[in-house]
Amino acid sequence: MADELTLEIVTPERMLFTGVVEEVTIPGTEGEFGVLRGHASLLSSVDIGELSFVRDHKKTRYAVHTGYAEVTASKVTVLVETAERADEIDLERARRAKERAEETMAKLPKEDAEFEKMRLALLRAMTRLNVSGKA
Questions:
Q1: How many CA atoms lie within 13 A of 134 on its CB side?
Q2: Could you read off the pLDDT of 5-38 as tens digits, one per residue?
Q3: pLDDT band, residue 133 (cuts 50/70/90)
Q4: Domain assignments of the chain as residue spans, ordered by start
């Protein structure tokens, strides 16, 4: 069993976080899952949602937007399109994005390809609002 669990959160632009953590919770596409040191190795796709970790008995939250997570007994690497720490989320921008998506969806038939884009934009905005409310 591994003595420590290292977490890396990476976007295409930069490494957002790297450090030793006590536990990680990841929004997988098949459902949310938690990781402690010594976890069995796995590879999972990551969905839009809240990723959180505990370090020094303090929980830190991120709003993440699709990607992959690789888990080994001693390391979790999360590669996502975007990630925002809860205390860095611009609430006003998230509210505007939510309103725009809702307004656009109201005008489109569900079969329209743009409807699905707006549904995902709405989900991202709602995730950002939810995560920022827990900062």
A1: 17
A2: 999 999 999 999 999 999 999 999 999 999 999 9
A3: confident
A4: 5-87, 91-132
Distances (CA, A) of 21 to 12, 30, 64: 22, 23, 18
Count of helix runs (H) and strand runs (E) in the chain? 2, 8
CB 20 within 8 A of CB 101: no
Based on the number of CB atoms within 10 Å of its own CB, is 14 exposed (0-12), middle (13-18) or buried (19 or more)?
exposed
Locus of tokens 């707006």: 118
At residue 2, the pLDDT reads 60
Specify whether the CB–CB gap between 21 and 5 falls below 8 A: yes
* pLDDT score of 134 more than 80: no
CATH architecture of the domain 5-87 equals Sandwich (2.60)
pTM of the model: 0.89
CB 76 within 8 A of CB 69: yes
Integer distance in angstroms from the first to the last C-alpha of the chain? 32
In percent, the amount of the chain with pLDDT more than 70 equals: 98
